[in-house]
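FAQ: What does the model actually see?

It sees only this:
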Amino acid sequence: MGTDDFFKKRRAKLQERKIESKTPKPNSFLIVSEGTKTEPYYFDGLANYINELYNSNSIKAEKPTIETCGEGKNTISLVEAASKIVARSPIMYEQVWVVFDKDDFDNFDEAIELAESRGFHVGWSNQSFEYWIYLHFNYSDSALHRSQWCQKLDDLFKSNKISEVGYEKNLTNIFDIVTKHGSIKFAISSAIRIERSYNNSIPPSKRDPCSTVYKLIQELKPYIEPLTK
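And it is asked to produce this:
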């Protein structure tokens, strides 16, 4: 047992040294999401948009590094997964974001506190990421179940002839769709307006609807100026 303890402590010290030796990378973002489709597709689309701006030499700000990971985990388990990704990463990210939904989880507030205690930023949505998507098109302060937000998007996509099949969670071009037919600037202003309508003493789990994904977009605002003017 003594030998086992010795090697465990040695491995722990080596891991600490490995983390300490990482060089912080400026303008680097790690985005770890609960969903494996909609959220990663959205943020991958955003990263692709930024890359196209740089390729066309239409932006002067230093190019950011954006990594997205769709983990298929929720709340606290997602925060733990993000911690493992950070520990394994060869670089130290300037900003680490976890993106997850309220859904029906009871530990929503606890997960947000845990993430922030580890230095992570949180882009949470109550009830779902679909609410953030909806805000690109219309303002709403209705407290609806996540399935209803999907239905509202489905109706909107069909009525506006955005997609004949309506809204689907596996739309790889979801970012292009919402920025072409909607407005990311409007989504940001709407999300801020909603958040300000709540008293600060009200926990995130009780702020229905609400989404702080806009805070992540604001951090990337210098790189997407054409979409936010």
